[in-house]
Design goal:
The protein contains three helices and no strands. With 78 residues, the chain is mainly alpha-helical. It has a domain of 40 residues. Helix 1 runs antiparallel to helix 2.
């Protein structure tokens, strides 16, 4: 198994541009939900902080946003 991650805090993205990588993943065939997981859960696993962040669970730190509508709709779904 190969883990695919994005936005793992490597420091050269301008603030707000860290969504470019998951968008590119979807553009080239990754399912939208898989790109979201790559940017959250898998990213945390790759840098060894999955016990603190990456999923919404009791005791973890999280930034949560609300969106109007389905965040998976309107994107290319292979």
């Amino acid at each position: 198994m190969v883990l695919i991650s994005s936005t793992v805090n490597y420091g050269w993205w301008a603030h707000g541009d860290n969504t470019d990588e998951p968008i590119t993943m979807v553009k080239y065939g990754m399912k939208t939900m898989d790109a979201i997981v790559a940017a959250t859960k898998t990213g945390a696993e790759c840098i060894g902080i999955q016990d603190k962040v990456g999923t919404i669970e009791k005791g973890k730190i999280a930034d949560i946003i609300g969106v109007d509508g389905n965040p998976l709709a309107g994107h290319r779904q292979p």
